């Protein structure tokens, strides 16, 4: 091969050895911190009165490909801007040989319009006249801007290879109060970017090729300068060592090669060895400091158990690399599963009161829960709704059977902000949270609403919660200690509330929630002594068919107790056209006899008075003479449709004052005020939508009765003393002080004086 051909080949080879993917700016931090920087860039949001003007280099030295990357950077920045005529205004110039206004600051008032216009910008080509563009802005100002009445931000995206002077016009712009960000593209000349950028320069120099890092750096600087607070309070701006590289051409001695030289003295051509040099592209490193925002990551709480390693994934996701013994389980935890048939709706607080951080914690909890407990053969169906001003069903119950698809759908649920209207959300969740399924009774799976919140409701919750429970929904609450009392009011029981103190403690609630979803606890207290009277509304407003439903319900409840004179005694009173004791407390000593007697109870019809029936129980049923036992807890359960209860509040309170608990089971779509008054100050009320649905509230009733049976008993209430004798407590027992003419332990015997 001729020598000159060899020389050409070597030169081409050397010029082609440019690393195509070597970063020109690198932050020297751990991989985990780089992930946090990337995540924080997606969480930033600037909502302040500010004018931002993009000045994009469209010259030949940048090229069409890098110009498109400049546009992508500008669009990514706009994703974090609250663009409107009153808040953030955005405009754009393209410069090359001459500056060209793409659109002024007052052209568009929405983020979508601005991003669409930037996307349509066409590369022009030409010389790199950066200085000419800066002088244009010096003379004419920000087109469509607010005349320096708000902060002015100039974002110059260029390769820094201007064909004119830039330092002086850049200095003059900055002296007029303009904040200048110099953002490099392609192979930037950092010294020129240094001259363009505002002080402190290291905080105002970025690289558009690394769009998430550059976006983070820009908003970190804006946060530090108080132009706009772009992140949540938990996030912080920190200085990190970094390195910026420039691409330079250097000459390098490559050795000697044969060459031929002519001579002035002779016409001959002489052969010789000549030095040979090659030109190489090399990167020169310049140490620097980069300022970036990081936010608490999903791995900060160390969610992986049993020696697992946490690997962050996205905004709030992570993956645990588990030891072999725990492989395949979420968080490397012991295996959980949902064995029961359940429709589960997670209700997430997306209001301003909970904040973005709280909302992300709730989403992470739901994602980890479904990953931990759902299997291919699971009979559980899951949905997710969010609420603030109104309810939004983001993932309908049962839409996704595949867990990865369900988890991906959760990633797309946005934070909404706004007021915390929890009561309205509960009402809507009860009405439409589970779709339009018409299945009832045994054909319908258990339906559960799991409420996750960290802020108190701004509307009333007690009524909507009763409405939801009346629709046969089990309500469970997961929240911070600040909302514990409200969650207990909503769910109806402290046992249905899970409280956490910190993010890791929230994740620890997953096994407890799994247990509550499938437990059908039978809270019967078979060995607990109890005197129990059922009071049934048998008026014409109820009707024979509904009365039969009540009889079936009472029989089912009776099966939960050990009926005998030493443990549980049951009596039954019916009222309608009259009040009648169907059977007293001490008349049915066995369960078989009790069940037969319930079935034989009469339907009376007519107009009923609940107040008269309660007074009847006070005077003629719940008394020592009629079988009530001293020192035994006593309870009355009223089943009524609500009519005829207007006169019942005072008699009910008379029973309570005498040591007898009263629970009201109100049947019907709407509860009357008279029933609410009858329920008393402790709100001893169960709302049942229809008589056919009584059976679905049996567990709640039995649990209430067992709770009442455990309260301390006053031995003198009701008084065991007959014939107007007085009961006196004495040394853990009692004695009866009888009136003249009566004697016996309970003043039950008339004292006859013998004549002399």
From TrEMBL:
Q: How the protein assembles, per its UniProt entry? A: Forms monomers and multimers.
- Annotated Gene3D superfamilies: Laminin (2.10.25.10), von Willebrand factor, type A domain (3.40.50.410)
Q: Which GO terms describe its molecular function?
A: calcium ion binding; identical protein binding
Q: Does the keyword Signal apply?
A: yes
Q: Which residues form the signal peptide?
A: 1-23
Q: Which GO terms describe its cellular component?
A: basement membrane; extracellular space
BP-aspect Gene Ontology terms: calcium-independent cell-matrix adhesion
The entry's keywords: Disulfide bond, EGF-like domain, Repeat, Secreted, Signal
Does this UniProt record's set of keywords contain GTP-binding? no
The UniProt transmembrane annotation reads none
Organism name: Piliocolobus tephrosceles (Ugandan red Colobus)
Cystine pairs annotated here are 738-747
Q: Where in the cell is it found?
A: Secreted
Major location, coarse class?
Answer: secreted
Q: What name is this protein filed under?
A: von Willebrand factor A domain-containing protein 2
Kindly give the PROSITE patterns that the UniProt entry links to this protein.
EGF_1, EGF_2, EGF_3, VWFA
Q: What region holds the EGF-like domain?
A: 296-333, 712-748
Residue intervals of the VWFA domain: 51-222, 343-517, 531-705
Q: Which InterPro entries match?
A: ECM_Assembly_Org (IPR050525), EGF (IPR000742), EGF-like_Ca-bd_dom (IPR001881), VWF_A (IPR002035), vWFA_dom_sf (IPR036465)
């Amino acid at each position: 091969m001729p020598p000159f051909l060899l020389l050409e080949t070597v030169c081409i080879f050397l010029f082609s050895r440019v690393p195509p993917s070597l970063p020109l700016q690198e932050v020297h931090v751990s991989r985990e911190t780089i992930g946090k920087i990337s995540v924080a860039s997606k969480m930033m949001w600037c909502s302040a009165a500010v004018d931002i003007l993009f000045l994009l280099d469209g010259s030949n030295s940048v090229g069409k490909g890098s110009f498109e990357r400049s546009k992508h950077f500008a669009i990514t920045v706009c994703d974090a801007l609250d663009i409107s005529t009153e808040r953030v205004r955005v405009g754009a110039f393209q410069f090359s040989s001459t500056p060209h206004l793409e659109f002024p600051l007052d052209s568009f008032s929405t983020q979508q319009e601005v991003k669409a216009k930037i996307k349509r910008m066409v590369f022009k080509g030409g010389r790199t006249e950066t200085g000419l563009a800066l002088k244009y802005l010096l003379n004419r100002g920000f087109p469509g801007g607010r005349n320096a009445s708000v902060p002015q931000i100039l974002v110059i995206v260029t390769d820094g290879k201007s064909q004119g002077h830039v330092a002086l016009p850049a200095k003059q712009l900055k002296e007029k109060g303009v904040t200048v960000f110099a953002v490099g593209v392609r192979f930037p000349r950092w010294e020129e970017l240094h001259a363009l950028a505002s002080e402190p320069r290291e905080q105002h120099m970025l690289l558009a090729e690394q769009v998430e890092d550059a976006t983070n750096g820009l908003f970190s600087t804006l946060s530090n300068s108080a132009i706009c607070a772009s992140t949540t309070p938990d996030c912080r701006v920190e200085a990190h060592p970094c390195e910026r590289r420039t691409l330079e051409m250097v000459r390098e001695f490559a050795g000697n090669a044969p060459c031929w030289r002519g001579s002035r003295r002779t016409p001959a051509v002489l052969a010789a060895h000549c030095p040979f040099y090659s030109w190489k592209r090399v990167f020169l490193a310049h140490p620097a400091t980069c300022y970036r925002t990081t936010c608490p990551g999903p791995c900060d709480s160390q969610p992986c158990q049993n020696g697992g390693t946490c690997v962050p994934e996205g905004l709030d996701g992570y993956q645990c690399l588990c030891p072999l013994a725990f492989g395949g389980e979420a968080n490397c935890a012991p295996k959980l599963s949902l064995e029961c048939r359940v429709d589960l709706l997670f209700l997430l607080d997306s209001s301003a009161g909970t904040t973005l951080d709280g909302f992300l914690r709730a989403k992470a909890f739901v994602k980890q829960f479904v990953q931990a407990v759902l299997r291919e053969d699971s009979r559980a169906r899951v949905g997710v709704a969010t609420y603030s001003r109104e309810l939004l069903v983001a993932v309908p119950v049962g839409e996704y059977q595949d867990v990865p698809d369900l988890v991906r759908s959760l990633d797309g649920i946005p934070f909404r902000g706004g007021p915390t209207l929890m009561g309205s959300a509960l009402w809507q969740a009860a009405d439409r949270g589970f779709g339009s399924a018409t299945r009832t009774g045994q054909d319908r799976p258990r339906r559960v609403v799991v409420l996750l919140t960290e802020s108190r409701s701004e509307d009333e919750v007690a009524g909507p919660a009763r409405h939801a429970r009346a629709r046969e929904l089990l309500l469970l609450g997961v929240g911070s200690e600040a909302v514990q009392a409200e969650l207990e009011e909503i769910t109806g029981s402290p046992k249905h509330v899970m409280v956490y103190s910190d993010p890791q403690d929230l994740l620890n609630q997953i096994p407890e929630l799994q247990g509550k979803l499938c437990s059908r606890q039978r809270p019967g207290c078979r060995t607990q002594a109890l005197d129990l009277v059922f009071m049934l509304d048998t008026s014409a407003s109820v009707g024979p068919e509904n009365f039969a439903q009540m009889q079936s319900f009472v029989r089912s409840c009776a099966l939960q107790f050990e009926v005998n004179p030493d443990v549980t005694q049951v009596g039954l009173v019916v009222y309608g056209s009259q009040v009648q004791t169907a059977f007293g407390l001490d008349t049915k000593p066995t369960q078989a006899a009790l069940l037969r007697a319930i079935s034989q109870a009469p339907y009376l019809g007519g107009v009923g008075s609940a107040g008269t029936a309660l007074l009847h129980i006070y005077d003629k049923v719940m008394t020592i003479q009629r079988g009530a036992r001293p020192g035994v807890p006593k309870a009355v359960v009223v089943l009524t449709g609500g009519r005829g209860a207007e006169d019942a509040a005072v008699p009910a309170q008379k029973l309570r004052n005498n040591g007898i608990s009263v629970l009201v089971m109100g049947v019907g779509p709407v509860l009357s005020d008279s029933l609410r008054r009858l329920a008393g100050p402790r709100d001893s009320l169960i709302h049942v939508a229809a008589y056919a649905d009584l059976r679905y509230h049996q567990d709640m009733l039995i649990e209430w009765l067992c709770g009442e049976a455990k309260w301390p008993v006053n031995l003198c209430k009701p008084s065991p003393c007959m014939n107007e004798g007085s009961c006196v407590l004495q040394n853990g027992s009692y004695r009866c002080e009888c009136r003249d003419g009566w004697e016996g332990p309970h003043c039950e015997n008339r004292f006859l004086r013998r004549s002399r």
